[in-house]
Amino acid sequence: MLSQKVTGYWTAVFDYETTAEDELSLRKGDRVEVLSKDSLVSGDEGWWTGMIEDRVGIFPSNYVVLQIDFSELALEEMIGVGGFGKVYRAIWKGKEVAVKAARRDPDEDVSQTLESVHQEAKLFAMLRHPNIMGLLGVCLQEPNLCLVMEYARGGPLNWALAGKRIPPHTLVDWAVQIARAMLYLHCQAIVPVIHRDLKSSNSKTLDLMPGVFKSFDAKVVSSFGRPNKVVSLSQRSTQRHTWRARVSGSRRARVRNGRWA
């Protein structure tokens, strides 16, 4: 029996057309009440059960991002400024996070700023890699339109490199991690993305550097700015359906082979 305990409200960042009666169609911007993340309830990994108004169904989990109430965030200090807007260190539910507040042009309609947040969230929602900053959620309460991201406590990689003698094996380890992230972005992501601004100041370390250097997790992408998506106009429909097939393919295969087995 489905537990009606709500696990939170999430926002759709993609449209999703149903292909089966038990699925829930999504439109970008829809507010989805997630009822269960249990694959035993939905029937497959990567699928959740949710409700929009009075419609209940299952949907691919990577089509939505968590909607966070801005009042849950305690902003500590500004740690940077980028093309998207200002970046703050903040505390959310007891853990450090980075909050990217969308820049608002006074002459621009708020709907354009909201679309900018949706677009940035959409790009991050497509990426799942240990060396790419993860999107934790979005705030869509005007005027506080922002993204909530993983926080890289170690700061930019150039800080770690400046004036320090770092063992070659550590430098090689960092280089390999960055290369893996670039390989993923360019060749393995659902929609390939060209970074266009790779440099040490745009690469982060998750932890503060101790006195003795060793390997640390590096994060490459923390902002897109103006990325190049490798998708031509003629490819967009194909890419969209290819992604949908990747998300739902295992579920369809399982249905054919006995979904409840």
From TrEMBL:
Native source species: Sinocyclocheilus anshuiensis
Name of protein: mitogen-activated protein kinase kinase kinase
Assigned EC number: 2.7.11.25
Root EC class: transferase
Domain annotation SH3: ranges: 5-69
Cofactor(s) needed for function: Mg(2+)
Keyword field: ATP-binding, Nucleotide-binding, SH3 domain
ATP-binding is among the record's keywords: yes
Record-level Gene Ontology MF annotations: ATP binding; JUN kinase kinase kinase activity
Region of interest (Disordered), residue spans: 242-261
